[in-house]
Design brief:
It is a single chain. By secondary structure, the chain is mostly helical. The protein has one domain: Cytochrome c-like domain (Cytochrome Bc1 Complex, Chain D, domain 2). Helix content is about 50%, strand content about 0%. It has five helices and no strands. The protein has helices at about 5-35, 75, 85-90, 95, 110-125. Helix 3 (about 85-90) crosses helix 5.
Length: about 130
């Protein structure tokens, strides 16, 4: 009989649980998005609602989605290209990032972990 160290067993157990953890995290991130953002936004291409589609938002210039006409002038002229850090700041307090935006009456999300989940979800929807 071959000896298998407890460390080896633990590493194997962790490695086999990663796909489940990854799926659970992705589902949790989607729930955070759905709970806070889905009323006004979609992540489906060309599915604009009260707010623009957030499909492929990471790497996109702010206010530049041609099929969405209701951007504020402030957002269109902000010069922002959305990355994860800027999205996190905007979701926390849109007025601090782009004064004069149209996200009213959205107050922002103060909870860091919730913002992180939403940004991770948006980033995953920008890689498809």
């Amino acid at each position: 009989m071959r000896y298998v160290s407890p460390t080896h067993v633990a590493i194997c157990a962790l490695a086999t649980s990663l796909p489940a953890f990854s799926t659970q995290a992705a589902e949790s991130n989607q729930v955070a998005f759905n709970n806070r953002c889905r009323t006004c936004h979609s992540v489906k291409a060309d599915d604009n609602r009260l707010g623009p589609s957030l499909h492929n938002i990471v790497g996109r210039k702010a206010g530049a989605l041609p099929e969405y006409a209701a951007y504020s002038q402030a957002l269109k002229s902000s010069g922002i290209v959305w990355d994860e850090a800027t999205l996190n700041k905007f979701i926390e307090n849109p007025d601090a990032v782009v004064p004069g935006n149209n996200m009213k009456p959205y107050p922002g999300i103060t909870e860091e972990s919730e913002r992180t989940q939403i940004v991770e979800y948006l980033a995953s929807m920008s890689k498809e």
